[in-house]
């Protein structure tokens, strides 16, 4: 045949007996005709011309170029060798340096030889094929290998080390790192059960939210329910969208602490949701005074309903109570005001330029004490006539039947409205997170290193970071972090 994709192929033994210099590089080796007989090998003088005409893809240039390529191929071939399997990859590399660079292309479907025959026979698997040498022109002397899972395991970069630690600090905590016992369940009150861990997240405008609430090591070991509750809610649409993050902690060592915490979150969520349009307008307009007074009123009203609910259930209002902490996040990308408010223990922190800042609102004595009133508070320091009272006989005064019993002092209301900067991370947490952040430098350094990146962590990574344990801190841990773009 004159050439093309359907040219004949020569068997290795036949071409070797007839003195073909390129017998060891024939591809594919041992290809026979359909009738089972081997094709007769052409004369050695015409072998180079036939190789040039049967090459696929055809070499660039005219007939003169093909003849020159054939002569170069014939000169590069070694002396006659006996019948033997193909040699190693080293001979192919030397041959690729001498042969002209072909244009890479697919091999003939009918078994025709390629311009540069591979050095291995029979055809190896893709994962075992040696890497093709490059010709001077930049083309591959043999088809490039196909990446497989085996190749990737060797050539790809090693995976990054695990970002999660079990604990930090002086030593391992006393309890196991994983849950041990489940809380007891009432078959008639299955709706009162709470999960061990709650995880949530969102992204609006210029901020990204991650929130988690998980049971402490002590409660996991003793089979107690998680006393912390977490609520994330969105109110409104478009630029009027307002996101509320509320977290509460029930009283310690009380049976219904987890129920009180959940009810406190529901009550404040209902109050904020009904007035979210007004709150969103006040936040965008930076009306700090209106925000503080309005949120104080909503908080007092919600906690008052919680105490009334305790009375209805026949419970002690002091036991059926909860601390409450909230964040208001507007979805408007042009508004970077973040509002915090709440009552009770916990912490508010800001991670800026890799350093932690404790921005928990300070409460002055004027916020918790006031002028003494009849039946409540301390007696005046002096009488209206100017006589100072210097002796206390310690005799209790019986309560008057005409006056209501005095209420115990309430927790002070905390409020803070701040403007976020790009790159800031605002973190709000219950006491289970705030206490180790304030008391363990290794925990602060670990979270600062993990959360100072350009992008916020995913939900799984955020959960792994927040559940790093610290010896001596085994309470429930609830955290909400806001990354500013």
Low-pLDDT windows of residues: 1-26, 28-36, 41-55, 57-63, 77-98, 101-119, 121-142, 144-162, 369-378
Strand order of the largest sheet: 2-3-13-11-8-9
Taking the alpha carbons of the first and last residues, their distance comes to 69 Å
Q: How many strand elements?
A: 13
Mean pLDDT: 75
Tally of alpha and pi helices: 12
Radius of gyration, taken over Cα atoms and rounded to an integer in Å: 40 Å
- Helix-strand pattern: HHHHHEEEHEEHHHEEEEEEHHHEE
Q: Roughly what fraction of the amino acids lie in strands?
A: 15-25%
Structural class: alpha+beta
Classify the oligomer: single chain
General form: globular
Sheet of most strands: 6 strands, antiparallel
Helix content: 25-40%
Q: Could you explain how this protein is built, in words?
A:
The protein has twelve helices and 13 strands. By secondary structure, the chain is an alpha+beta fold. A six-stranded antiparallel β-sheet has the order 2-3-13-11-8-9. Strands 4-5-6-7-10 form a five-stranded antiparallel β-sheet. A two-stranded parallel sheet has the order 1-12. Helix 2 crosses helix 3 (63-76) and helix 7 packs across helix 9. The longest helix is centred in the middle third of the chain and has 25 residues, at 288-312. The N terminus is likely disordered.
Short note summarizing the structure:
This protein has helices at residues 12-17, 47-54, 63-76, 89-98, 149-155, 217-222, 257-274, 276-284, 288-312, 431-439, 441-451, 459-466; strands at residues 167-168, 197-204, 207-214, 228-235, 242-250, 322-330, 337-343, 347-352, 355-358, 413-419, 425-429, 469-470, 477-484.
């Amino acid at each position: 045949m004159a050439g093309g994709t359907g040219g004949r192929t020569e068997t290795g033994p036949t071409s070797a007996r007839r003195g073909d210099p390129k017998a060891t590089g024939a591809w594919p080796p041992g290809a026979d005709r359909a009738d089972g007989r081997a094709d007769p090998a052409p004369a050695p003088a015409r072998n180079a011309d036939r190789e040039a005409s049967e090459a696929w893809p055809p070499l660039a240039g005219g007939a003169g170029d093909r003849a020159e390529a054939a002569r170069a191929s014939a000169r590069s071939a070694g002396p006659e060798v006996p019948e033997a399997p193909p040699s190693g990859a080293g001979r192919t590399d030397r041959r690729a340096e001498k042969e002209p660079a072909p244009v890479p292309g697919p091999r003939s479907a009918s078994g025709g030889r390629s311009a540069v025959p591979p050095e291995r026979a029979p055809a190896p698997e893709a994962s075992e094929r040696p890497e093709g040498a490059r010709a001077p022109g930049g083309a591959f002397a043999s088809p490039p290998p196909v990446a497989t899972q085996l190749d990737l395991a060797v050539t790809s970069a090693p995976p990054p080390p695990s970002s999660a630690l079990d604990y930090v600090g002086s030593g391992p905590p006393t309890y196991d790192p994983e849950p041990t016992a489940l809380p007891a369940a009432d078959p008639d009150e299955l709706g009162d059960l709470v999960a061990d861990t709650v995880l949530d997240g969102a992204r609006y405008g210029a901020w990204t939210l991650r929130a988690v609430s998980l049971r402490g090591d002590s409660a996991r070991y003793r089979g107690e329910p998680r006393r912390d509750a977490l609520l994330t809610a969105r109110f409104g649409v478009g630029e009027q969208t307002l996101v509320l993050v509320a977290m509460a902690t029930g009283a310690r060592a009380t049976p219904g602490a987890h129920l009180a915490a959940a009810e406190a979150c529901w009550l404040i969520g209902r109050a904020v949701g009904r007035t979210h349009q007004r709150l969103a307008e006040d936040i965008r307009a930076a009306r700090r005074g209106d925000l503080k007074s309005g949120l104080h009123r909503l908080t007092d009203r919600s906690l008052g309903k919680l105490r009334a609910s305790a009375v209805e259930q026949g419970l002690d209002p002091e036991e059926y109570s909860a601390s409450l902490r909230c964040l208001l996040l507007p979805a408007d990308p042009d508004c970077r005001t973040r509002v915090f408010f709440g009552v009770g223990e916990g912490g508010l922190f800001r991670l800026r330029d890799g350093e932690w800042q404790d921005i928990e609102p300070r409460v002055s004595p004027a916020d918790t004490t006031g002028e003494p009133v009849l039946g409540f508070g301390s007696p005046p320091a002096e009488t209206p006539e100017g006589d100072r009272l210097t002796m206390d006989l310690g005799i209790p005064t019986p309560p008057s039947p005409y006056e209501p019993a005095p209420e115990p002092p309430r927790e002070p209301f905390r409020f803070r409205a701040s403007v976020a900067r790009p790159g800031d991370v605002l973190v709000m947490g219950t006491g289970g997170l705030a206490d180790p952040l304030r008391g363990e430098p290794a925990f602060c350094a670990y979270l600062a290193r993990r959360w100072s990146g350009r992008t916020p962590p995913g939900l799984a990574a955020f959960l792994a970071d927040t559940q790093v344990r610290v010896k001596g801190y085994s309470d429930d841990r609830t955290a909400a972090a806001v990354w500013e773009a």
